[in-house]
Structure formats: C-alpha cells, structure tokens
Amino acid sequence: MLVVGGGIVGLCAALRLAERHPDQSILLIEKEGDVAAHASGRNSGVLHAGFYYTADSLKARFCREGNQRWHEWCDAHGLPVRRCGKLVVARSEADHASLDELTRRGAANGVPLEVITEADARAIEPSARTVGRALWSPTTSSVDPRAVAASVAASARAKGVDIRTGVAWTGARGRVVETSAGTCAPGRLLNCAGLHADRVAHAYDLATDVQIVPFKGLYLVADDDVPPLRCHVYPVPDLGMPFLGVHLTVTVDGHTKIGPTAMPAFWRENYGGLAGFSAAELTSVLWREAVLMARNPAFPKLAVDELAKADRTRLVARAGALVSGLRPEQWRTWGRPGIRAQLVDVRTHTLVMDFALADDGFGLHVLNAVSPAFTCALPIADHLVDRLSGAS
Q1: Among 191, 209, 295, 344, which has the highest number of CB atoms less than 10 A from its own CB?
Q2: What are the pLDDT digits (tens) for 177-230?
Q3: How far apart are the C-alpha atoms of 216 and 260, rounded to whole Å?
Q4: Distance (Å, rounded) from C-alpha 162 to C-alpha 28?
C-alpha cells in the first residue's frame, strides 16, 4: 500500500491501515522535509463541532465524531487542548434565518448547540457583539495542529508505517508509481496529496471534471499584551459558500487571531513571494479563476471582498463587527499563510462543498479535503480504510 501525502488525512489513514492490517507493508511518501507542511500544519487549530453542514454530507457524518476523538487523542497523548467553545454572532436581524438553519443542522447532526440571548453572549465573552441572539457551541476547541500531526506520525511509525519525507510523487505508468526516489508497484494507492490531489487523479484519467483552485488564508495575530478572548467568535456564514468568513479564534497557547482571508491564489503553493512558483500552474489557475469570474455569479464579489482583506486595517474592521474594542495598532503581525485546496467542478463552475473521493479499484483519491478535514481526519481515515478493504 502506498499513501501519497503526509498531511493529517494521509497520516491518519496510514495509521489506521497499519492497525487494521498489521501484516501489510505501508509506505507513505511526503514531498516536503516534514509531515503536515501545508494545510494540516498551517490551519487555525480549531476543532469544529459539526453544525455548519447539511446532514446528508460527509462533513456532517464525520465532524462530530472527529471532534470527540481528537479530544480523546490529545488527552491520551498529553497534548494541550483549549476547551473554550464558540459563539456564532448575528451582525443584523438578516442573519437570524441562517442562525435558525444552523440550529436545525446542529440538531440533525447531534451536535450540542444552544440558542442564547445577547446578554448570555456577553456573559460568555464580554466584548462579543450580536443582534438579538447568538449560538453557543460548547464543544468547539483549539489544538496545536503541528503537534497533533507529529503525534499521529509517531504512532504510525510505531505501528510499522514507513514514512519517507523528501520523496515526491512524479507520475504514473499504469500501476507503476514514479517518485523522486524511484519507482514502486503498490497493491493499492491512496492519494492524499492535498493541493496536488487532482493532478495525481488526472494521471489515472479520474476526476477530470474537477480541478483544485487554491485560496490563500491569512491571519492577523494580536500583540502579546492583548488579553485573549474567552472563546472563539464567528459570524453567521454565507451557507452557499464553503468559507466561514472572517472570525476571531483563540489558539491553544492563548493568543487571539483574526482571519482567515480566502483570497484567490495564483499558484498552488503561493504562500509568499515567488516560493513554489510554477508558470504552468499560474496559467492554469488564472484561466480557471477567469472562468469562475465569468460563469459563477457569486465569485466576482467573493474575489473583490477577499482581496480587500489583505489590508490589515480593513481586516481588523471586519472583525470589529463581531467584537468590540479592536484597534489596528494591536494587530501588527501576520501569521503563517495557508492555502486551501478548494475543488471546483469545471462543468458547473461551482465550488465543491463536501469532501470528494474517486476510486478506480487501484487508486482511492481524496480530492477535496478542505475544512473541517482536520477535525474529521480520524473518521475519514476509517472510511478510507473501509473503502480500501472493500467494507463500504
């Protein structure tokens, strides 16, 4: 068995494969020098509760269980968890219908969730701003994503998984996989390549009707002398888009962040400067974004709004609609940027909302492991191993 990609989903799947099939040889390759170098190690570290997602989605199916299992994992492995909870606040009465929908989704998904008053919200977080009412999610928490990923990698190695960093997937010749360290012929392939998952699938003539379009997420980090919020504070999101909007999160070590942006990036690893630059990717991504601008009515507004958030003052102002007392001079530091590997259906010119898989009997390809994939990673791994084992 070959696993391509050392992000949190690939690591959890490799661990679960080793636990389920202890006599099987499992190799995981990761092109970077360490695991979780991309989205898995650059995300906010929030363990989501699972109330954003419609009950028929894989996200809803896995998120509540994933939240619980990561809490148990961190406790068992001595990793810190900040059990702070989350407020979802209304910026106007126009948000109330979506608050009601989130409440219904939470109930359908079995997620603890409470509708509270403005006074209740201020009792939880005195600086929170909401109109009329808010939602309280007590099971939303924070972890250190890199520490969690490292612990999963250590557990996988202890179970016999051969994790080789600095080794990239480079191509395919039938069932022969080409890598930067030579070729191999695995019995099965599990593609968890994140930003490059569509490229791997396309090499097998799978999922040719979808393409990953990268979106850059930037966070502002509060100065050290700014007291942390008591909990996460999020806006009511646009339920037609796969982004949650600018929000405030509390890190596991007690810092507060504003973000993220969801700006269209220009190539897949467009973290800053010319790092990761690829002319071919630039051409392909710009073309796809141009088509989205022309064919998806919601995309131009999204792009303009998100690009405006690259301005520090404007980003703080957006967050100021959720929390009072924010001053731009207290938010001077940008955190490590992350790239969201967002899948786009090139036939309908829409952003794919749910996790997506493709399977041809040899390769099982994880194509849209976007948020809340980190929270969902352990039950996603069970699902992948079931598929690989013919159990589902």
Answers
A1: 191
A2: 999 999 999 999 999 999 999 999 999 999 999 999 999 999 999 999 999 999
A3: 8
A4: 6
**What confidence tens digit (pLDDT) does each residue in 19-77 have?**
999 999 999 999 999 999 999 999 999 999 999 999 999 999 999 999 999 999 999 99
Q: Is 301 helix (H, G, I), strand (E, B) or coil?
A: helix
* Cis peptide bond prior to 214, omega within 30° of 0: no
Closest alpha carbon to 164 in 3, 341, 1: 3
With contact defined as beta carbons under 8 Å apart, do 130 and 90 qualify?
yes
Please give the Cα distance from 217 to 17 (Å, whole number). 32
Q: How far is CA 97 from CA 14, 60, 88, 134, 195, in A?
A: 42, 20, 13, 12, 34
| DSSP sequence for 195-215 | GGHHHHHHTTT--TTEEEEEE
Residue 85, CA distances (Å) to 33, 51, 79, 121, 125 in order? 34, 13, 18, 12, 10
Residue type, 76: A
* Entry pTM: 0.96
Distance between CA atoms of 135 and 338, rounded to whole angstroms? 28
Burial of 176: CB neighbours in 10 Å, binned 0-12, 13-18, 19+:
exposed
Residue 340 is given by DSSP the state E
200: amino acid identity, one letter = V
